[in-house]
Design goal:
The complex is a heterodimer. By secondary structure, chain A is mainly β. Chain A has strands spanning 5-7, 10-14, 19-24, 31-37, 43-50, 55-58, 61-66, 71-76, 85-92, 99-100, 104-109. Chain A is globular. In chain B, a hairpin with a 6-residue loop joins strand 7 (65-68) and strand 8 (75-79). In chain B, strands 2, 4, 5, 6, 9, 10 and 11 form a seven-stranded mixed beta sheet that branches. Chain B has a four-stranded antiparallel beta sheet with strand order 1-3-8-7, with no helix packed on it. By secondary structure, chain B is an all-beta fold. Chain B is built from no helices and eleven strands. Chain B has strands at 5-7, 10-13, 19-24, 31-37, 43-50, 53-56, 65-68, 75-79, 88-95, 105-106, 110-114. Classes of the chains: A mainly beta, B mainly beta. At the A-B interface, strand 5, strand 9 and strand 10 of A face strand 4, strand 5, strand 9 and strand 10 of B.
Amino acid sequence: SQQGEEDPQALSIQEGENATMNCSYKTSINNLQWYRQNSGRGLVHLILIRSNEREKHSGRLRVTLDTSKKSSSLLITASRAADTASYFCATETGTYKYIFGTGTRLKVLA
Amino acid sequence: NAGVMQNPRHLVRRRGQEARLRCSPMKGHSHVYWYRQLPEEGLKFMVYLQKENIIDESGMPKERFSAEFPKEGPSILRIQQVVRGDSAAYFCASSPPRAGSYEQYFGPGTRLTVT
């Protein structure tokens, strides 16, 4: 089964609301990254958080990491229609094989 | 500092043709990784290369797929005699030669469509 599992699989919110998506993983990690992928497009790197960090911010994005629960969350505040995309977490477990989850499909309604 | 470059961004091939996907790593990066993303799925590891060496190809299909990373030039993922099931997005990532660290930086991907 996948190391990274995003939850929920799909999320639909109104513009201006906050969106929270979660990623759980099974084995210990060195770092975890969040990516955005617009439909039919490539990956856009959002944030990298290392295993010794608990929280990082970048603009409207806030990522937390709880290594004791083996989980991470991505919060997008004041969402916009342009945030509509799929969001993936990817874990680096000490080998070079990054493991991606199946993603959360976010839809922001104008 | 340009990021990981991939070309072409979109590639259409008929069944039985060959597909060549190129990846130029970030400057100073000597490690390259290829991943495949099937529709509605996450990325899956295919192969890890260093200059002139294949380190791990455990994620590559046994037949028709090959990868190289020559001393000069980009890394190439080659798919011979493509079939419809090869239609996917192929992503390349690179990392610097830093011991103990595998931070990877991903390119925009090549979307292969087999008709």
